[in-house]
Amino acid sequence: MALTFRTMDAIRDRNYFVQFRKNAARASFGEEGPFDEQEYADLIEARTREFPDGYVMVEQDGRIVGQIEMHPREFEGRTIAFISLFYLVPEMRGQGYGQQLTDYAEGVFRRHGISEYHLRVSPTNEPALHFYRKCGLVKIREEQHQHVMWRMGKNI
C-alpha cells in the first residue's frame, strides 16, 4: 500500500515528531539522551519553512506512521542533501515501506538538483545499517559526535 508524504505542522504533529525522535535515539544509542522538546519543535518549525519538502510526516490511510527530516547543506565544498531522520513505526518495518521513504527522498533531491546525500547512523544499529546498505549507501567515514557515528552516502 502506498504511503503519502506531507509537510510537517510544528503544532499539530509535535507529539508524533518528538516521540519518533526519542524512539530513534533509543534504537541507536539505547537511551534518549539529553533532549529539549521545545528547542526541537522550534527547529522543526524553522526547517519546514526553509525546506518544506524535506520535513514530512509519512502517512498510510490518514494514520501517521513515520517521518523524514532532510535538507541541503554544504559538505567539503559541494552541496549535498543530509538526512537527519528516517523513521517508520516498528510495525511498518521490514515490509518494503522503507523503500518508499528512500524513493521520496531521492525524488526530492533530484528535483532540487542534488545528486548526493548523506546520513549518520550508529554502527550498533544493525537493522538501520542493513536497510541503508540495501538502498545503496556506503560508509564514508567514522565521525565522533555525542556517540561514534558512521557517515554513509549515496550518489543518485
Describe the structure.
The structure is a single chain. The protein has one domain (4-155): Gcn5-related N-acetyltransferase (GNAT) (Aminopeptidase, 3-Layer(aba) Sandwich), CATH 3.40.630. Strands 1-2-3-4-5-7-6 form a seven-stranded mixed β-sheet, sandwiched between helices. The chain has four helices and seven strands; from the N terminus they run E-H-H-E-E-E-H-E-H-E-E. The radius of gyration is 15 Å and the shape is globular. The mean pLDDT is 93. The protein has helices at residues 14-29, 37-50, 97-111, 126-134; strands at 4-7, 55-60, 63-75, 78-88, 116-121, 138-144, 148-155. InterPro entries: Acyl_CoA_acyltransferase (IPR016181), GNAT_dom (IPR000182), YpeA/RimI_acetyltransf (IPR050680). Keywords: Acyltransferase, Transferase. This is GNAT family N-acetyltransferase.
What is the topology?
Blueprint: E1 4-7, H1 14-29, H2 37-50, E2 55-60, E3 63-75, E4 78-88, H3 97-111, E5 116-121, H4 126-134, E6 138-144, E7 148-155
Parallel strand pairs: 4-5
Antiparallel strand pairs: 1-2, 2-3, 3-4, 5-7, 6-7
